[in-house]
Design a protein that fits this description.
Shape: globular
Distance between the termini: 106 Å
Helix content: 25-40%
Structural class: alpha+beta
Strand content: 15-25%
Radius of gyration: 34 Å
Length: 239
C-alpha cells in the first residue's frame, strides 16, 4: 500500500513523501474501497466540482514545502507611480507625472498657481516648500520669473496634475552658491498645478500672493498690496 501511495503521489523516493501527501493518497484509497461497497458513491464524487479540491491541494503543497525546508514564492507586487521611468527633454530636464490632471494646460503669459516641494536630488534634503507656508506660489509662465527648469516643467502640465521634476544645474541655479543649494546642484521639485489665471488682475494678485507667502499676513503685506494696487495695476490696465 505504501508503494502504491508513493507511486500515486508521483514521488520516486519514500524520503520525499510528506505525511500530508500520504494522508491524501490513503484517503483516496479508502474512498475508492468504500465506493466499491456503496454503488453510486464514485459517480457522485466524480461529479463534484474541481474547485472544491483546489484549496486542499494548495494547502498540501504549502505544508509539503514547509516540511522540506523550501518556501513558496511571494506574488510580484503591482507597479507604482514611482516605478515609472522619467521622460527626458532635449534640454536635459527629466519629468514624471505622478497624477495627470483633467484641466487645461497653461500658455505663455498665463499666471500659474502651484504648490511645490524642492529638495536636492543628491542628498534628498529639502530647501524650500510652499506646502510649509500654507500659501501656493504664483508666477507668469514663460517670462523668466523662475528658473528655466521650472518654466519648462510646468508648461505641459494640466490643472489638477502632479509632477516630479529633476532639473540639471544649467536649468537651475548653475554655479551660484545659495547656501541651502550648493553650486551645480541637481534639483528635485514635486509640483501640483492648482490653477491658471490670466489678465492684469491676475498679475497684480500674483505679486500680492507671493509677498503674503514669503512674509505672512501683517502690516508689511498690507502696504505692499496697497502699493501694488496704486502703482502697478494701472500699468497693466488699458486706458
Amino acid at each position: 500500500v505504501a508503494a502504491l501511495a508513493w507511486s500515486a503521489a508521483g514521488f520516486s523516493s519514500p524520503a520525499l513523501v510528506s505525511k500530508h501527501a500520504a494522508r491524501r493518497v490513503f484517503g483516496e484509497t479508502r474512498r475508492w474501497s468504500e465506493s466499491r461497497e456503496t454503488p453510486g458513491a464514485a459517480t457522485a464524487e466524480a461529479a463534484a466540482p474541481a474547485e472544491a479540491v483546489a484549496p486542499a491541494e494548495e494547502e498540501t503543497a504549502v505544508a509539503a514545502a514547509d516540511e522540506e525546508g523550501t518556501t513558496v514564492p511571494e506574488p510580484t507586487p503591482a507597479a507604482t507611480a514611482e516605478d515609472k521611468p522619467f521622460e527626458i527633454e532635449l534640454s536635459g530636464l527629466r519629468w514624471r507625472d505622478e497624477l495627470v490632471g483633467d484641466g487645461e494646460s497653461p500658455e505663455t503669459g498665463d499666471v500659474v498657481v502651484i504648490d511645490y516641494r524642492g529638495s536636492l536630488t543628491k542628498t534628498g534634503k529639502q530647501f524650500d516648500a510652499s506646502y510649509d507656508r500654507g500659501v501656493p506660489f504664483s508666477f507668469e509662465l514663460g517670462k523668466r520669473s523662475v528658473i528655466p527648469g521650472m518654466d519648462q516643467g510646468v508648461k505641459s502640465m494640466r490643472v489638477g496634475g502632479k509632477r516630479t521634476l529633476l532639473i540639471p544645474p544649467r536649468l537651475g541655479y548653475g554655479p551660484v552658491d545659495l547656501g541651502k543649494i550648493p553650486p551645480n546642484s541637481e534639483l528635485k521639485f514635486e509640483i501640483e498645478l492648482k490653477e491658471i489665471k490670466s489678465g492684469a488682475a491676475a498679475k497684480a494678485g500674483m505679486m500680492f500672493d507671493n509677498v503674503k507667502g514669503a512674509f505672512g499676513l501683517n502690516l508689511f503685506t498690507f502696504f505692499t498690496a496697497l502699493f501694488v494696487l496704486l502703482f502697478f495695476v494701472p500699468l497693466f490696465t488699458p486706458k
